[in-house]
Amino acid sequence: MVEHLRRLAAQRPGDTAVIEVGAGDDTLLSYAELDGRARVLAAQLQARLEPGERVLILLDNDLHYVAAFFACLYAGMIAVPAFPPESARAQHLARLVAIAADSGARCILATEAVRGMLEAATISIAPEALFLAVDASGSDPAPQWREHAPAESDIAFLQYTSGSTGAPKGVMVSHGNLMANERAIEEGLSVRADDVFVSWLPLYHDMGLIGGLLQPVHRGIPVALMTPRHFLERPLRWLEAISRHRGTISGGPDFAYRLCAERVREDRLQALDLSSWRIAFSGSEPVRHETLESFVAGFAPAGFAAEAVYPCYGLAEATLFVTGGRRGAGMVAHAFSREALVQGRALPEQAGAMLVGCGAAPAGHRLDIVDPERLAPLPDGGVGEIWASGPSISLGYWQRAQETRERFAERGGRRWLRTGDLGFRHDGQLYITGRLKDLIIVRGQNIYPQDIEHAIETGVEMVRKGRIAAFSVETGAGEGIGVAVEVSRGMQKRVPAEALVAALAEAVGMACHEPLSVAVLLNPGALPRTSSGKLQRSACRQGWLDRTLDAYAVHEAGRFTMGGGASAAQPRREEGLRPGGIESELARIWQDVLGCGALGREANFFASGGSSLAAARIGMRIAEKWGIEFPVRVLFEHPTLQGCAHQVGRLLTGGPHQLPIVRLREGSAGAGELSYAQGRLWFLWRLEPEGTAYHICGGLELSGELDVEALRWSFERIVERHGSLRSVFRAGAEGQGEQIVRGHQALAIDLVDLSGP
After folding, report:
1. Is the dihedral of CA 61, 67, 70, 76 positive or negative?
2. First CA to last CA across the chain, in angstroms?
3. Residue 720 half-sphere exposure, CB side, CA atoms within 13 Å?
4. Could you tell me where the beta strands, DSSP code E, fall in 26-125?
5. pLDDT (tens digit per residue) in 344-372
6. Residue 142 has pLDDT above 80, yes or no
7. Helix (H, G, I), strand (E, B), or coil: what is residue 582?
8. Does the pLDDT at position 335 exceed 80?
9. Which of 168, 303, 611, 629 has the most crowded Cβ, counting Cβ within 10 A?
């Protein structure tokens, strides 16, 4: 990969490598600039560390992350892609602490802002690690970069799966694995020299890093990057970026397409042109036929073609890409008998379950469907465990020899990865039916049931310790989280079912930032276990589906379908909420976003059905309502309605971290209020209208003949781009300052010719 980038920097130095898409103007990085930034940072790493040492990357989806990852490759270090913590709270640092400890990270690459957050934390991520701020300009002489030529078997980076916080596993991806998978992706997607990637996927995730960033660099084509938060706040931004940059390859998990289909209004389609989008890949979580059908139908008026849909399958242990379809073939889907699938056979049936094909393995790789008990290959149509083999299969798990032996097997002279996923082959296509393992996948995020069970055990004292099971459930919006807990008879009498469900939802939300979809309250001894006492999560899930569990209450989709009593049906009163006050207005926002009923001051965001996605939407609504920047982490740190409202009030009154913003519609008849800083300047101007203290004058000297029309055109484009240059300020009806953003209009420029004698 280093050779690829070095060659591009030498042969096409000015060509665009990466475009950073954000709230303001796009930022471009050429191949030469990326190569230069990577070499500078790599030299700093080489001056402080030995080759092969681990470097933890805690950066957002931006150009810093891109340069930092390549710097690790340039320096011969092992990159550990991660993410900046949402806050300094212990639960937000727990996973990073575990990753740092497991990898033995010797260095952390982050920004000065992240350094400040980590220094304020009560626990340290990596006490012995060196910290390098990628946005700091040091005064010391820059060290010289020494070229490093890795062997194919050398580890390029550790890809930590989105797994258990208690015992995260780092997949060892070698340089040979990486290049083999990039070639497989290039073949599978038929990537061309004129393609343009657009990605919002996180760079600490295999799909975002290997597919979204490294594939474009491998192929020598540009990629437009945005942060996941930028997309989640307003999904339309993803489609706007594809339209604006004429993106040809882009995609994400199933939930991304569902979000766009649900939240992008029809009147927005006229401004979109998705005709350039030739590959819309869907992976990372189960591919849902109805989601893709809805997306195709909804965005066909904007030029999106059904043939662009590209379902695929992959996982970190195989570097990324395992199977994919054929470019331009569109979605291949068939209906299969549900009854036969349960029995391990795939039989087409018109009224059966609609499954989406995920293509076939690329050249040099193999895929087998294996009976998980007999470990024997199955014929087409047989449902079994998916095994994958080829040069993309990773080296295994970092410092976990036993788990590596369990997941990576030798058979028939080949090394195979046991994926733990169930599927079958039909007409040359791989179809995924489920998982052998208990992993829960919500919106592409892997959630271990053990983490949820631990969070409930430590946070909800009303349930019996060790009598908790978490499992996946199917909801109308995709996969969700279900829990079953045993409750003693005495506790059942003292604690209403509604209060217990609220406590469970709060614990689950705080642990993984996703809502609780199903809660099953069991009588003592009802949780399914093996004869040796081992918890049977799959049996628990099946018991919930069959309604065979000994439950006294079941809460699903926001209501009790069994038990709960009269008290559970009573809505919480809006006690103490002053009409028109911050708490009252914030309650309306929560109700609108979360779809919940009446809220009291102590209402908890997570207990009310909150998720990381909902938090981003609430943050956006708060910004629009009160004109302040409201980071999502503030809601995570203060999840009650009262606490959240207090933080909004602090920002409104000039508390810490205030970032006032004002949004005005251009050319509208109405006027907007001034921000706090603008109000201060307005007050000073009213005191001294003729004052010039804040005037800024300047001159620009040009040589050669002046093209007046070109100069006027350039100025008009600048003024058109920046609304603040078209803003005027006036006194309102009561003397208060107001601002209006004028629409686009011709710019008058006086020309004074002083070239005469």
Report:
1. negative
2. 63
3. 10
4. 27-30, 54-57, 78-81, 107-110
5. 899 999 888 899 999 999 999 999 999 98
6. no
7. helix
8. yes
9. 168
Mean pLDDT of 534-556: 89
Measure CA 212 to chain center. Answer: 13
What is the predicted pLDDT for the residue at 531?
A: 46
Q: Which amino acid, residue 370?
A: V
Within 13 Å of residue 166, how many CA atoms lie on the same side as its CB?
Answer: 9
3-state helix, strand, coil in the chain (%, to 5): 35, 20, 40
Under 8 Å between Cβ of 450 and 483: no
CA distance 296 to 306: 6
Write phi, then psi, for 269 (nearest 5 degrees): -65, -30
Q: Where are the beta strands (DSSP E) in 338-428?
A: 353-356, 366-370, 384-389, 408-411, 414-426
Residues 81 and 114 sit within 8 Å (Cβ to Cβ): no
- The three-state secondary structure class of 234 is coil
User: What pLDDT does 677 receive?
Assistant: 60
Reference 207, options 154, 159, 261; nearest CA is: 159
CB 171 within 8 A of CB 159: yes
Residue reference for tokens 């469970």 = 504
Radius of gyration over alpha carbons of the chain, in Å?
28
Start-end of H helices in 347-488: 401-407, 449-459
How many residues appear in the chain?
757
| Calpha distance 51→389 (Å, rounded) | 29
Three-state SS for 243-293 is: HHHCCCEEEECHHHHHHHHHHCCHHHHHHCCCCCCCEEEECCCCCCHHHHH
According to DSSP, residue 357 is labeled B
Given the DSSP bridges, would you call strands 737-741 and 16-20 parallel, antiparallel or unpaired? unpaired
The sign of the torsion formed by the CA atoms of 409, 80, 150, 401 equals negative
Cα-based angle 22, 28, 29 (whole degrees, multiple of 5): 125
In angstroms, the CA 242 to CA 276 distance is: 8
Contacts of residue 717, defined as CB under 8 A and 6 or more positions apart, other chains included, come to: none
> Residue 237: in which H helix or E strand, if any?
helix 236-245
More confident residue, 593 or 703: 593
d(CA 279, CA 327): 7
Q: Which fold has domain 582-652?
A: 1.10.1200
pLDDT tens track for 52-108: 999 999 999 999 999 999 999 999 999 999 999 877 777 678 889 999 999 999 999
pLDDT digits (tens, 9 = 90+) for 106-140: 999 999 999 888 887 767 888 889 999 998 855 56
Residue closest to 21 by CA, chosen among 225, 217, 221: 225
pLDDT for the residue 680: 59
| Pair 257, 200: CB distance under 8 Å | no
Q: Is the dihedral of CA 372, 378, 384, 386 positive or negative?
A: positive
Write the CATH number of the domain with boundaries 333-435: 2.30.38.10
Contact assessment for residue 241 and residue 228, using Cβ atoms and an 8 Å cutoff: no
Q: Which CATH superfamily is domain 440-569 in?
A: ANL, C-terminal domain (3.30.300.30)
What are the structural domain ranges in the chain? 333-435, 440-569, 582-652, 672-741
